[in-house]
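Students often ask why we bother predicting the structure of a whole assembly rather than each chain alone. The short answer is interfaces. A chain on its own may look different once its partners are present, and contacts between molecules only exist in the joint model. In this exercise we take three input lines together and write out one structure for the complete complex. Read the inputs first and try to guess which parts will touch.
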Amino acid sequence: MDIALITESIETLLGGVVLTLELTILSLLIGFGLSVPLAFMRASRSQWLSMPVLAYTYVFRGTPLLVQLFLIYYGLSQLAFVRESFLWLLFRDPFYCALLAFSLNSAAYTIEVFRGGIQSVPPGLVEAAQAIGLSPTKIRLRIVFPLAFRTVLPSYANEVVGMIKASSLASTVTLLEITGLARKLVSETFAPYEVFIAAGAIYLGLTFLASRLFNLIELHLSGAPPDKARFPWLLKLRQAL
Amino acid sequence: MKKLMLALALATTMGLAPVLAQEPMKVTIATEGSSPPWNSTDPTGKLIGFDVDLGYELCRRMGATCTFVAQDWDGIIPALTVGKYDAIMGGMSITEKRKKTIDFSTPYAVGFNQIVMRKGLGLPPTDAKAKLNLTQMDASKQATIDTLRTALSGRTLGVLRSSNSEVVVNELFGKVATIRSYDTNENMTMDVAAGRVDGTLADYFVLKTFLESKDGDVAEFYGPMLNGGPWGPGAGIGIRKTDPQLKVAFDKAIASANEDGAIMALTEKWFGMDMSPPK
Amino acid sequence: MGGFEEQFLRGLETTVLVAAISGAFGMLVGLAGAAAKLSRFRALRMVADAYTTIVRGVPELLVILLVYFGGTAALTALVGSYVEVSALWAGVFSLTVVFGAYATEIFRGAIQAIPRGQTEAALSIGLAPWQTWLLVILPQMARIALPALCNLWISLLKDTSLISIVGLSDIMRVAVVGAGSMRDPLTFYLAASALYLMLTSFSLLTFRLVERRMLAPVH
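Now the answer. The structure tokens for the assembled complex follow.
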């Protein structure tokens, strides 16, 4: 094992971090935006609302992301009306194909996470909100969702970490994010060990930072005074806010 | 007369003249069995293909009795080294990496690789029937490559990841074109058809199959047929390092079959083109 | 589908085989990992912690690539001559490593959810420590861990598709080759989706049945 080669590889691979983060963060944001309304539909007592969403989450959670990605990337490009319309401007670019696949996949998981949270909110709270005359939309967005989100925060954090890791599949549709760059580097240096270990170290750093961030958010939301010795800066941050 | 001299030459180099004269040498050859036209298995389970035909021809010239056996590609080298069979004929490219473990005969066939580009890109015409070996570059070869480089600059090229073609594309066009790497030839040619990439460089037969498919009419061969360089000298017979006599025997048989046109005839039968090694 | 039905069937076999072997080995790794995490020895705990943290923080695809390409390099260096790691065993090994890391966490959580009094009671009526584990802890743990294990198994089934990237002839690989040679990706990837969906649905149903039987009163 060549330690110098590992450090050298890390330097090269850091060039892919931006694309990895772009894919991850945009997919999570789109997935989040889709999942809030859909999670309410999924949690609804009406079968007409919940069944279509269940079908969506069932299919997307029951098949590999790689198949979904290839269906979008290779499958859609087979259709003449996609290739011959403005859609091709988007789907011609591997980035948007990956973004679409990741967003739809992330939304499916997030919907189920949020649904659990929504169903755990005590009905009494909703009734109280109705009693003071809040509109149903306001009740959902101002009362139910914030409470639900707080309950499921640890599960959502898992989804975020999962998305960072899943973004590595973008390398299979020619994108040069961290894994894509690593595979390119391996075919140039013939040093799979060093290069893939370097890539692993970068992912480990990213996933560690993400879980740390969510720990802090959790701590903040729980309202407990932060441990001064461990997070003096967090206390300052909260005072500033 | 030629044959007699060959047998004599063989016998002397092997130093086994008396034994050889009495009993024909027995050689077991492994092939993969599902890589047509190199080698494949017919519906009755019999191994057929260029490797098999040439293998029997070489054995006839060596005065040996040969049997072909099928072996998965994954374990084809380890099983040779432990003596499950004596030789590998499976269209296996002679590479430096494999040479660390096993010996190779001189090349018995040399494949080609070629660029395919989408039609209608307004590229200057080229001679797609010409052949160019990258091993010994000279001024005229360099001029051809330079013309290609100018024609392809600014284009997007797809290439199979970790293949020798990838090495060539990066070396020749890496500075002027955008290179995208794919995990399989299937995925790569689909993107050529869809127009996500303008072209590709890959094994001639892979691309020929693609161009003959229903999506293939959007593209055409471009520039000369390439080999040598990073692709190595060609396909060779894999032999144990501890078996130098067998290597000598195969080398002689290959040289003779190449000399009298037997290899050329067999490559034309199976591949539809002359793929005999340089004499 | 141009004769690809049979290949899909063989791909299905490979997918199930790889998942089953990795799942079985992964369970053993998970049990050992959980035992290590709950052990009195600090060194064991640290090794187990490092294992689960690293594996769960790195993409599965990267683990597979590392084992497949790095494994060949490592084994070659170790044995002294060129050894090629096959896609099948690289896949089984990497998925075992991944499954084991998550199973470790599941088993650890499940064991900790069993009240300590149970162990004490078992020991006080004269059961040996191994009997306590086998007769008291394991059966209860299995019941608690079952839903999480079901999810993990489904992830494993889906992760097998990643091994197609290093050339294993599983469902996904057949789809890629078929899509390319028949020039019809939509049909082939939809077929692959249907097969995976069938596998995951079948798994869900089976786990439901097992769960129902296990939850039936046993006292």
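Check your guess against this: The CA atoms of residues 137 and 241 of chain A lie 28 Å apart.
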